Amino acid sequence: MALIVQKFGGTSVGTVERIENVAERIKKFRDRGDDIVVVVSAMSGETNRLIEMAYQIDEKPNAREYDVLLSTGEQVTIALLSMALNRRGVPARSYTGTQVHILTDSAHNKARILDINELNMRTDLDQGRVVVVAGFQGVDEKGNITTLGRGGSDTTAVALAAALKADECQIYTDVDGVYTTDPRVVPEARRLEKITFEEMLEMASLGSKVLQIRAVEFAGKYNVPLRVLSSFDEPNFDSDGVNGTLITYEEDKMEQALISGIAFNRDEAKLTILGVPDKPGVAHGILGPVGDANIEIDMIIQNIGADGTTDFTFTVHRNDFVAAKAVLNRVSNELGAREVIGDEKIVKISLVGVGMRSHAGIASKMFKALAEEGININMISTSEIKISVVVDEKYLELGVRTLHSAFGLAEKQS
Amino acid sequence: MALIVQKFGGTSVGTVERIENVAERIKKFRDRGDDIVVVVSAMSGETNRLIEMAYQIDEKPNAREYDVLLSTGEQVTIALLSMALNRRGVPARSYTGTQVHILTDSAHNKARILDINELNMRTDLDQGRVVVVAGFQGVDEKGNITTLGRGGSDTTAVALAAALKADECQIYTDVDGVYTTDPRVVPEARRLEKITFEEMLEMASLGSKVLQIRAVEFAGKYNVPLRVLSSFDEPNFDSDGVNGTLITYEEDKMEQALISGIAFNRDEAKLTILGVPDKPGVAHGILGPVGDANIEIDMIIQNIGADGTTDFTFTVHRNDFVAAKAVLNRVSNELGAREVIGDEKIVKISLVGVGMRSHAGIASKMFKALAEEGININMISTSEIKISVVVDEKYLELGVRTLHSAFGLAEKQS
How many domains does chain B have? Predict the structure, then answer.
């Protein structure tokens, strides 16, 4: 019926028994008539076992050899899964990254996919075989084994789906989809049936870590319909689409919800440099030294004051707070600024939804809801499809619940 | 100075620490100026771990996938060893069977090497790199991963040495060479400095399991000088050749000892079918059904009697004794033979030496020595370079010691 790429992560194939379960699931899809390409990760724990041996030998292991080592993890899984399928009478054939020829650049440990030769896979599919591909790995043009970096198996799956023009790319995880927000914070949080790629990118980068960002970007670029679903639930063939969350392009505005979800990030810290004499180049004068110290900056806000000075505020990862403050103190002297202040106990809450593009009043509704609960907003930052606010750490749960309720996210929207 | 292929088995690379030791050893050869190609097996225990998972899934695992699975074992070792070398400032690069392109036929689990592309290796050697190759594995012409079967790493090493026209192929094991006989039976047993390929074949097939027979055959065919030595001893660079045992072609008759060693085999059992009417085809009539039952036959002796009947005796592995006896009882009736008798408590002792080709009287000296100790000989079988006798099990140690002493094997011969 359909050509489906299915990706199973390390937990889903963590034991021989779970590999057997995955084989059973694939068999059900085959029995329905689907053509299946499977991408698997290393069995959970295996990659760490290999990494440990490497670091026993060298604290900076040779990058090329590190990839040779790590790529064995997925190779074990493809062999075992193919055995399990063949034993069930489902013809299957495994491929390493080299064999399927997932061509990458030569950036060991973080290679990027350049091209995929889908010929072998196509032949196998035509002959009724399930194709089982090792995720996370590829080969450069000289035949060296490369790896895509942690989480790269998602990218492999999306890239194969794009190359094969698959009908759907299914990413199996230990959660059953993307939620309006973290159900541990808001018990009424609802699984989304659909979310756009752009929203998913915002949700993922803001801390809802279901999918690798690179995989989502890749899927968006090649218009691959992505579905996130649980490897522990039974597949639901009666009503297609009820399982998991489908990540799709914004094409069907009628069905599009105003707001898709609420993301949050507990790991932020805020720094402000006050009374900086306002002249061209001041932003670079402040942020340059911070970047030189290898500190990543998230939100940035600058207000020009009336007295010819400016206040400059930005957020960093909480782990970088002390280092960033030290840099700022030095910069502050050099620039003749008044003072450096900081706050480690802040969080970021973000409202995400493509609907806000065409709807006015979302921001004011958000600020009003927070104000009614007495939640003071420290910083505001907006993009086309999200509004982020920084608030005191203690307001995180209250803030997320208030917004979840104010925008009616617990109810199915249409 | 020389181009040397070194092979390290599973025990020699069984832990990260031992891999570091192997790296140290290789560095010493590099420091001396040798070009080194290393072949390694999977870390000991690893192959069994993989096999166990496969058999949990299927008691007859898919042969192609079994090779994909098992080949990861050596891949882990090549990566770790290359890391250990690079960390020591010895540039090294690893190759899987696929990467070095060890072309084999497609007989999964027991593939045979057809060709080796030495181009990549040669380039690396020219650039001062140590080349680290995964043993035991290859690739067929369609790109499928194959394995050569257990012990195939020895064969890989010899094949690489042949392709590269190496000066020597060194097989590192947990023994320091080939002995005149098993030192556990004869404490005075002496390490041989040299042994011919033919003798080594006889010694190996007769139970002195130091090297894989296929590797020895391969080395003989391509005239590759093979050396067996211990991975636990320090390399001796002062007087070349003092380490281990060199297996060479019979070229230097002056130095050749009359007898090289005494092999023995405890796993034999003897069967005799008495009074078979003697007519053409009788050997096939007896051995055909035994072969059909998948029982391998070792020694065969037939005596023609005076009364138009013949006695037919052969030996099998002790595990096959009961099955072989059942077959013989049936055959005996069909052929009108008189009786079937058997003995499970026998052993085979063999005198091996290319010298016996050109020296008469070896056999009679052997029989005399055994007779003087009251050891009765059940069966005799000879080839060009060996004489085997079957005796009662209880005479094994006495027989081996007697012959070891009678032929003066404890003393260095010239």
Answer: 1
Q: Give the type of residue at B310.
A: T
Measured in angstroms, the CA of B316 and the nearest CA of chain A are apart by 35
Give the closest-approach CA distance of A84 to chain B in angstroms: 6
User: Which residues of B have a CB under 8 Å from any CB of A?
Assistant: 16, 19-20, 50, 53-54, 56-58, 61-62, 64-66, 68-69, 71-72, 75-76, 78-80, 82-84, 86-87, 93-94, 96, 98-99, 143-145
Question: What is the domain range of residue A203?
Answer: 3-251
The ipTM estimated for the assembled molecules is 0.79
Residue A267's Cβ-count burial label (10 Å; 0-12, 13-18, 19+) is middle
In Å, how far are B82, B97, B117, B146, B170 from B163, measured between CA atoms? 22, 14, 8, 19, 15
CATH of the domain at B158: 3.40.1160.10
Tell me, yes or no, whether B241 lies in a domain.
yes
> H/E element holding B325?
helix B321-335
Asked if B83 and A96 come within 8 Å (Cβ–Cβ), the reply is: no
Position A396 in a domain: no
Q: Do B65 and A94 touch (CB under 8 A)?
A: yes
Q: Does some domain include residue A180?
A: yes
Inside any domain, residue B151: yes
Smallest Cα–Cα separation from B114: which of B64, B165, B163? B163
For every one of its 414 residues, what pLDDT tens digit does chain A have, with 9 covering 90 and above? Answer: 799 999 999 999 999 999 999 999 999 999 999 999 999 999 999 999 999 999 999 999 999 999 999 999 999 999 999 999 999 999 999 999 999 999 999 999 999 999 999 999 999 999 999 999 999 999 999 999 999 976 689 999 999 999 999 999 999 987 888 889 988 899 999 988 888 888 888 887 655 567 777 788 888 888 899 998 888 787 777 655 458 899 887 665 545 568 889 999 888 999 999 988 887 778 888 888 998 888 888 888 887 776 788 888 999 999 999 999 999 999 999 888 999 999 999 999 999 988 887 777 888 899 999 999 999 998 888 888 889 999 999 999 999 999 999 999 998 754
CB-defined contacts A:B, below 8 A: 113
> How far A85 CA lies from chain B's nearest CA (Å)?
10
Give just the sign of the alpha carbon dihedral A328, A333, A337, A340.
Answer: positive
Interface contact flag, A57 B143, Cβ < 8 Å: no
Cβ separation B87–A58 shorter than 8 A: yes
Kindly report the nearest CA distance between residue A29 and chain B, in angstroms.
20
Q: Rounded CA gap, B7 and B11, in Å?
A: 12
| DSSP per position, A346-389 | EEEEEEE-GGGGS-TTHHHHHHHHHHHTTPPEEEEEEETTEEEE
Please give the structure tokens belonging to residue A234: 């039974």
Instruction: Report the C-alpha dihedral over residues A318, A319, A320, A326, rounded to 10 degrees.
Output: 100
